[in-house]
Amino acid sequence: MNMxxxxxxxxxxxxxxxxxxxxxLGPAAGVAPAVGTGPTVGTDPTANNSATANAKKNTLWxxxxxxxxxxxxxxxxxxxxxxxxxxxxxxxAYAALESTTDLHPRYLEQxxxxxxxxRSHGGLPMVSIVYWALVGQAETKDFAExxxxxxxxxxxxxxxxxxxxxxxxxxxxxxxxxIEYPDVATKLVGDEFTLAQxxxxxxxxxxxxxxxxxxxRKMLASGQLEPTGRKRxxxxxxxxxTYRYAPDTTGSDTTAADAKHSDxxxxxxxxxxxxxxxxxxxxxxxxxxxxxxxxxxxxxLAALIPSR
Length: 308
Hints:
CATH superfamily of the largest domain: Nucleoside Triphosphate Pyrophosphohydrolase
Keywords: Hydrolase
Pfam families: NUDIX, WHD_NrtR
Number of helices: 7
Organism: Bifidobacterium simiarum
Region (Disordered): 223-308
CATH class of the largest domain: Alpha Beta
CATH topology of the largest domain: Nucleoside Triphosphate Pyrophosphohydrolase
Low-confidence stretches: 37-55, 253-282, 284-301
Oligomer: single chain
Distance between the termini: 53 Å
Order of helices and strands: HEHEEEHEEEEHHEHHEE
Structural class: alpha+beta
Mean pLDDT: 76
Number of strands: 11
Radius of gyration: 20 Å
Domain Nudix hydrolase: 24-176
Number of domains: 2
């Protein structure tokens, strides 16, 4: 099929793709994680001592898929694919996950639409509609391990295809602006959790050490948690009391954008080259009045999170 010259191709309607960012507190149980920065990463993860060290700290993990065709042959990418005429956007997102990772998150949320005019695939303009999900350990049990599918810690990602690094950074920024919403924790650790598990969520999302004793004291004094009357054993430690969020703190809507674009990104990320494009189709743009501020029901915890 003759697609014409470059200018003619650029004038064509954009292709539409759907990608998914999955975030979890750890790799799927029994699956060796991968770390590194090259296209051959993940071929022998059991030989990588750094992976074991990363798995022991509170870190967010992301499953990636190695590309087996051009462009970016051999690089890692987010699970995704083109939008079929008989699929809704959400169906396309689930289909992309099923064909690569076999993950079935209970809840998918549309993250953003990336449509910078410079984005292209095969010479055609490309619009990517990105979904994201937070998944707990129970949801990762069906993860399909394969040579071309691996879990990576978010602070040690490999070389990524297309602009997927920007997409992941935006997802992480959104998540850090959602940390004050109770359902962020429950999606990662379940409706019932120990204070140690909740502490792990906060450390993983903020990428900062938080004093456990102070965290316990602040959380118990915040009025957000109520004891379940049950206990849970974690590893070799003695059973710990479990809690859940009190009913009046669980109604926050996390589907809206949560911060004004002038604050983006609010964290001094280690990736200094990462900048919003502000082109009207990418993170950082939009009407600030359409972006409600975060709720203040968890403001008492702000002092626990070191500023960057």
